[in-house]
Amino acid sequence: MEAKFFIKTNRIFTPLRNWSWVFILLVAFAGLWYPKLGLLMIPVMIALPIFGFKKGKFWCGNICPHGSLFDRFILQVSANKRIPSWAISKITIGLALFWFMYMLGNRLVKVSELWGSTPFLDKLGFIFVMNYLVVTIVGTILAVFISPRTWCRFCPMGSVQILLYKLGTLLGMNKASDEKVTIASTEACHKCAKCSRVCPVQLTPYLEVSENNQLNNAACIRCGTCVVNCPAKILSLNSEEEAINISKTISLDGYRNRKEILATISDINYLDNNVREYIFELRAKLDFKPGQFILVKIQDNPEMYRAYSVSDYDENSKKVRITIKQAPNGYGTGIIFNSFKKGDSVQISGPMGNELVVDKDADKVVFVAGGIGITPFVPLVREMIEKRSNIKDVKLIYGVNKEDEFLYDEFFKEIENKNDNFEYIKVVAMDEQWQGRKGFVTDVLKEMQFEDYKIYLCGPLPMTNATLTVLSQLGVNNQDINYESA
C-alpha cells in the first residue's frame, strides 16, 4: 500500500473538543421535533464574531461542534485526501458566504412577520435547525469522501471570523489575545512537513512562518495539532510578544553551523531486507560532531526533508554515511527506497542536533540503542575510544527483536576485542534461536549501577519511554540522561 501524505492522528486534546459534537444532536436533530432548540444557535452566532475578532478561527479548532464531530468520529473513516483547490478558492468562499447570508436573511425577514404570534419562536428556531442540519450533512459527506475539515475551508461562519480577525488586526486590537502557531527557531526546523501532514485544514506551517517566526495564515484554526506532533518540539501557540521572547531565549547549540549542500549518492549498501546504508559524497566540507544528524531532501513540492543520524563522516573524502530502515507504509522512506539511486544528486542540510553529543568532561558513558537507533553510536563509540583520553568506561547496550536485526555488529565486536574500556552488551527480545541474553534493554539497565555515568539513548519511541521510566525508578538524575527517538 502506498503511503499517504496526510496522516490521521489524534486531534482531540480537551474535554470540550471531545464532547461539543453533542450540540449537533441537540440542535440539528432534536430540533426537528423541538424547533425552539434552534434558538441555542443565537448565542453561538454572537460568540463566533467575538472570537473571530480577538482570536481568528480559534472557535473552529477548539469549540466548533462540527469540528468535534469531524475530528473525533469522521476522521476514522475519512479518505483523508488533499482538499481540492475549488474548496479553498476565493470564488467558492465568496459564493458560500453570499448563499448563507442571503438564505438566512431571507428566512429571517419572512419569519419576522410572525413577531408577537405563538408560532414565532418555533419558526425562528426551525430556521437555525435546518441551517445546522444542512451544514452537518454537507460537511459530513465532504469529510468522509475528501478530508474531515474540507467544509471548514469555505464555511461561511469561518469566513466571517476571518474578515473580523483581519479587521481586529488592522485596528491593532487583537495583538495580545491572538495566539498563533509559533516556531522557536527556523534553524532548528527539520522541514519534515509533519506539521503540514497532520494539519486539519492542510496548511504548511513550516513553509509559511513570517519574520517574527509565526504562522500568519488566517485559515489556521489554532487547534494545536501541529504543536503536539512536531518531532523537533519547537512549535507552540503564542502571542507575538511571547514569540519574540522565545526567539531570543532559545539555545541554538548544535544548529549554528547548519548549511545547505549538494551531495551525490556514491554508494548504497543493502544491510537487510528493509535496512540500507546510503553514502553521500558532499561537494563541500561540513563540521560534524559525533551524534549529530543531517536532513536529506526527499521532494520539492512541498519541500520536504527527512532527518537521519550520521553513522560515519570522512573529512578527507567528504563522505557521509546514514543508515535508513524502511518504515511500514512510510511516506519518506518509501520515496527514498523507491527513488534514490546511485549517482543521484541530493540536497543535504546540516549538521544539526546536540541531544547525543557527549559531554566532553564525561569519563563514564552508557549508550542504549534499540533497532535502527544504533546508527549515531557508530561514530560516538569510535570517538570515545579513539579520541577521548579521559574515558574510563563505555558500555553499549543494544536491543533488537531478532538476532538478524543487529547492525554494525562486527564493528562493535572488533572495538570490544581491542579495548578493555568498552563493553558491548547485546539483548534480543523475540528470537527463540538466540543463544545470548534475552529480554529488553531495560532488563539490563535494572542490573547496573549508574553513579558518575552519563547516559545516551536512541531508539524507537516505546523503547525510549520505557528506558526513561526505568532510569527514573533507579534514581538516575535527569541531567545525566540525553536521548532522541529513532
Which features characterize this protein?
single chain; 486 residues; alpha/beta; Alpha-Beta Plaits; Elongation Factor Tu (Ef-tu), domain 3; 4 domains; six-stranded antiparallel beta barrel; five-stranded parallel beta sheet; 13 strands; 37% helix; elongated
Detailed description of the structure:
The protein has 486 residues and is of the alpha/beta class. It folds into four domains: 15-167, no CATH class; 179-249, Alpha-Beta Plaits (2-Layer Sandwich), CATH 3.30.70; 259-352, Elongation Factor Tu (Ef-tu), domain 3, CATH 2.40.30.10; 364-485, Nucleotide-binding domain of ferredoxin-NADP reductase (FNR) module (Rossmann fold, 3-Layer(aba) Sandwich). It is built from 18 helices and 13 strands. The protein has helices at residues 15-19, 22-29, 41-55, 58-62, 65-72, 85-88, 90-112, 120-145, 156-170, 194-198, 205-208, 225-229, 240-249, 331-339, 377-387, 409-418, 441-445, 461-473; strands at 180-183, 235-238, 259-272, 275-282, 293-300, 303-314, 319-325, 345-352, 364-370, 393-400, 422-428, 454-459, 481-485. Strands 3-4-7-6-5-8 form a six-stranded antiparallel β-barrel. Strands 11-10-9-12-13 form a five-stranded parallel β-sheet, with helices on both faces. The chain has a two-stranded antiparallel sheet with strand order 1-2. A hairpin with a 2-residue loop joins strand 3 (259-272) and strand 4. Helix 2 crosses helix 8 (120-145) and helix 7 (90-112) packs antiparallel against helix 8 (120-145). The longest helix is centred in the N-terminal third of the chain and has 26 residues, at 120-145. It is elongated and about 95 Å long. The two termini are 23 Å apart.
